[in-house]
């Protein structure tokens, strides 16, 4: 990463200014997301208390009053923003529970799934990409490119379907349904709360697509870097091949891969939706889908904002890392 | 290796014979040399032809995907009388999967038409409309981009579902719009980036220096040169839309039942997987084949149209 050309002091200052600008930009983005989601979800036909067998009008009226649904929409909106500024995400219509608590519980599970999938995808993706590039047009390269191409095109629920049919239904190797990891923070270090066999299929289903992306970009970037003059120079000055590859090629080839991490976070978020629904994993994605079906307004808002914030922060972190690596960005 | 050599030789010949082939003819030639892309294209054409034939000719679909319910043939595996087996109501899965393929293709392509219209409009306006317009357009894109895709699609789909509005009371169109409203940002950003970078390129400067009008510069020089990446992005957008539709169907937000969309076929089949997993395998394979083929064609187009590959 080395010191920037402008010297460490000004570099840090420029970086800080850039970071602050980007963090401030998050506020209007999240506000816009909140606003759009709020009015979209209220535009969804039917309300939370619409049922096949209609409730008595008096009960609906008192329920509406309880959740302030009797106010005009703009006042509900302002009230929601006001609560949001105070860190209050409101109450879920289901069981009257605090949305923040529900999301926290759900995210504890989603995060395990996402982090495991991210680690698996990064490790195997980079390994596959580097190996492919070093054996360009060799058999290993064909295998790598094939896995990356198929993986990038195969939707996770299709992959999950095949995995379930093969490994759970026919071979009975793994159980499905539910999450194998702990569901409470207290159980994190308790080995009996981890059921690895139940975790493998969901993690593989979720990690395959990002793995394929990472492998593709790593391969392309490695190939590009290997053709650069400084690699030839490094070889020419007599460095060992491994040193050239590890210190000069891989390090530089990782820059484009780094920018991929933002989209990868988005892919994991989208993927976790589907994967959680397939395997009945009680995460935020499943909570969101159930919330939309039930018109659970506070829960829809909470989970949308939560996901938008995660994706935005992931993109921010990536851009900041990128700015550290590539000085042109922070002066832009 | 042979393929690479062939392409290289072909290019050398092209260079020696002279630059008679234009950009597009050249790209087409390069595409036909790409075996994976051609295989994908041929399979796609075959599958599309089959789906269209099935929709119109009874001898191809053999059973009605909805109405023929054979109660003495429930949950059967593949056989000569039912190529893909039957489902829990004795409906023929061959007919249902082909109906699903047709829906997927319509939605995949329909979405990209809408995406292309919005994307070209927003992208070109942003690039050529001055600094203020650019800021507005790009902030709009940023916000749309900040939404987690599927979340927004589910919300949009819920908003549009069951509406009796003129024109868009068709559920297929509603799904298309829901997906397109999320995916246009890719094209918009791409078009804007292309336009901005092309504006600095030597050949555009040369055209301007020679006195070409701004309109001529945009239409004659910039649009054709930005079209390549756009075509590639649209091709890649089709499998994304097919996936989104299937995912919507899978979690129950897709086309209303009993429509045989592929995602719904897979999710309906899940309940009976222990009894008859073929119900799941065939529609899932159909989604996989469609997405793989479109991606291969997209890869081939990208390689064929990217001038840097030369």
Topology:
The complex is a heterodimer of chains A (332) and B (310).
Chain A: H1 8-43, H2 57-66, H3 73-85, H4 99-134, H5 139-153, H6 156-170, H7 196-226, H8 229-236, H9 241-278, H10 284-294, H11 297-325, H12 327-330
Helix pairs in contact in A: 1-11, 4-5, 4-7, 4-9, 4-11, 5-7, 6-7, 6-9, 7-9, 8-9, 9-10, 9-11, 10-11
Chain B: H1 2-17, H2 23-32, H3 35-56, H4 58-61, H5 93-128, H6 130-146, H7 149-160, H8 171-199, H9 202-209, H10 214-250, H11 262-270, H12 278-305
Helix pairs in contact in B: 2-12, 3-5, 3-12, 5-6, 5-8, 5-10, 5-12, 6-8, 7-8, 8-10, 9-10, 10-11, 10-12, 11-12
Report the β-strand fraction of chain A as a percent range. under 5%
Report low-confidence residues of chain B grouped into runs of 5 or more.
Answer: 14-18
Structural class estimated from helices and strands of chain A: mainly alpha
% residues in beta strands of chain B: under 5%
Distance between the termini of chain B: 16 Å
The low-confidence parts of chain A are 1-8
Q: Could you state the oligomeric state of the chains shown?
A: heterodimer
- The rough form of chain B would be described as elongated
User: If helices are DSSP runs of H or I spanning 4 or more residues, what is the number of helices of chain B?
Assistant: 12
Q: What level of helicity do the residues of chain A show?
A: over 70%
Return the string of H and E elements of chain B. HHHHHHHHHHHH
Task: Bin the helical content of chain B.
Answer: over 70%
Main β-sheet description of chain A: none
Record field, number of beta strands of chain A: 0
Q: What would you call the structural class of chain B?
A: mainly alpha
Rg of chain B to the nearest angstrom? 23 Å
Mean pLDDT of chain A: 79
């Amino acid at each position: 990463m080395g010191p920037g050309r402008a010297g460490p002091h000004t570099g840090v200052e420029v970086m800080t200014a850039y970071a602050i600008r980007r963090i401030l930009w998050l506020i209007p983005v999240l506000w816009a997301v909140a606003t759009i989601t709020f009015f979209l979800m209220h535009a969804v036909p039917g309300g939370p208390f619409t049922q096949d067998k209609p409730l008595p009008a008096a009960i609906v009226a008192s329920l509406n009053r309880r959740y302030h649904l009797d106010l005009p929409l703009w006042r509900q909106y302002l009230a929601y923003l006001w609560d949001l500024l105070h860190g209050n995400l409101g109450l879920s219509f289901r069981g009257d529970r605090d949305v923040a608590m529900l999301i926290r519980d759900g995210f504890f599970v989603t995060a395990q799934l996402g982090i495991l999938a991210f680690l698996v995808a990064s490790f195997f993706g980079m390994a596959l990409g580097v190996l492919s590039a070093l054996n360009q047009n060799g058999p290993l390269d064909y295998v790598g490119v094939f896995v990356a191409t198929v993986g990038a095109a195969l939707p996770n629920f299709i992959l999950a379907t095949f995995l379930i049919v093969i490994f759970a239904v026919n071979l009975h190797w793994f159980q499905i349904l539910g999450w194998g990891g702990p569901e409470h923070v207290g159980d994190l270090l308790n080995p009996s709360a981890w059921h690895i066999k139940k975790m493998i299929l969901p993690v593989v289903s979720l990690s395959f697509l990002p793995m394929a992306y990472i492998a593709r970009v790593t391969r392309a970037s490695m190939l590009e870097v290997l053709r650069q003059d400084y690699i030839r120079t490094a070889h020419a000055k007599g460095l060992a091949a491994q040193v050239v590859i590890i210190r000069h090629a891989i390090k530089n080839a990782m820059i484009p891969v780094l920018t991929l991490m933002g989209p990868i976070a988005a892919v994991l978020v989208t993927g976790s939706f589907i994967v959680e629904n397939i395997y009945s994993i009680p995460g935020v994605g499943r909570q969101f889908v159930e919330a939309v079906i039930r018109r659970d307004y506070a829960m829809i808002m909470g989970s949308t904002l939560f996901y938008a914030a995660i994706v935005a922060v992931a993109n921010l972190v990536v851009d900041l890392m990128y700015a550290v690596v590539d000085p042109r960005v922070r002066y832009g | 290796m042979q393929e690479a050599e062939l392409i290289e030789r072909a290019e050398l010949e092209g260079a020696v014979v002279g630059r008679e082939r234009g950009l597009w003819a050249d790209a087409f030639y390069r595409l036909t040399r790409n075996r994976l892309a051609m295989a994908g294209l041929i399979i796609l054409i075959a599958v599309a032809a089959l789906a269209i034939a099935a929709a119109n000719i009874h001898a191809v679909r053999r059973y009605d995907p909805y109405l023929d319910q054979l109660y003495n043939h429930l949950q059967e595996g593949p056989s000569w009388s039912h190529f893909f087996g039957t489902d829990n109501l004795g409906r023929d899965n061959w007919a249902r999967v082909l109906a699903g393929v047709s829906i997927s293709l319509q939605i995949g392509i329909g979405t990209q038409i809408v995406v292309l219209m919005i994307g070209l409009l927003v992208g070109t306006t942003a690039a050529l409309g001055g600094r203020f317009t650019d800021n507005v357009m790009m902030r709009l894109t940023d916000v749309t981009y900040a939404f987690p895709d599927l979340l927004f699609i589910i919300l949009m789909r819920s908003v549009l579902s069951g509406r009796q509005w003129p024109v868009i009371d068709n559920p297929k169109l509603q799904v298309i719009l829901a997906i397109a409203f999320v995916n246009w940002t890719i094209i918009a950003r791409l078009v804007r980036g292309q336009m901005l970078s092309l504006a600095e390129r030597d050949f555009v400067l040369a055209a301007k220096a020679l006195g070409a009008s701004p309109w001529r510069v945009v239409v004659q020089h910039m649009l054709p040169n930005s079209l390549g990446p756009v075509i590639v992005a649209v091709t890649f957008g089709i499998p994304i839309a097919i996936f989104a539709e299937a995912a919507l169907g899978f979690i129950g937000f897709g086309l209303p039942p009993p429509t045989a969309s592929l995602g719904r076929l897979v999710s309906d089949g899940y309940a009976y997987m222990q009894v008859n997993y073929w119900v799941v395998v065939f529609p899932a394979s159909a989604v996989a084949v469609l997405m793989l083929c479109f991606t291969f064609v997209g890869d081939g187009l990208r390689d064929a149209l990217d001038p840097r590959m030369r």
